[in-house]
Amino acid sequence: MALPPGLRALAIGDPQAPHCLELYVDFTCPFSKKQLSGVNEHLLPLISTSGEYNNKVRILLRPYPQPWHSTSPLLTEAAVAVARLAKPRGTSSEYEAEWQKLCNAEENAAWVFAKALFEEQEKYFDGPAKNKNADQIRAELASLVISTLGEAPRVTKGRPLLQAPEKGLPLGQAIKNLLRVEKEGNAGSQVVGDVKWCVKMGRQNGIHVTPTAVWDGLVQPAISSSFGAEEWKKFLDEQVGGS
């Protein structure tokens, strides 16, 4: 399934895989957190290099903020900002190497940051966040990007996964630039167009709740956020088989 060029980092797995799993998630939805946790723990080993279904499944993360979760659009902005900065740059050989890295969940900055957002999600529930304004939350999210992906990140054993595109520009400033909203007007941040695209994709496909899983283009109600290793193995056995 398609992603615009600037958001291709929201996908992991072989781009030529015969099957595609799309995960519509809201970063302040507890069940979305549960589903992504299960995918990381139980599904990824099955489709990894050493897994039984290696190169058979590509996974697309579809951020889908629900309007009743007041801070979710801000978390989605941060997620797509990271995806934008994670897209490959440089010479043709460097470009190809960077795309290969994005196929790996452990090397993909957007995927790693999505996990970090879910780990922090309770801070952005309606109650805990009710006295924070949007700029305060954006500043906290920029700090989370730095601590997760930037210089001496805490989750990748000191190995940075993300850099600013402009030489000499700190990563934190690059993120703040993307999330900044001007004092005048109603245009939103620089990534609001990406957030709109994510929402439009869900709306046109009739996605109502999160999490929702889509398998090869069709909503798959059988996929539950409670899926463990046994359930994912059975699902892949039935849906992929010898393909």
Automatic annotation (TrEMBL):
Gene3D superfamilies: Glutaredoxin (3.40.30.10). Transmembrane segments: none annotated. Residues 10-217 form the Thioredoxin-like fold domain. SUPFAM superfamilies: Thioredoxin-like. It comes from the Eukaryota. This is Thioredoxin-like fold. It comes from Ceraceosorus bombacis.
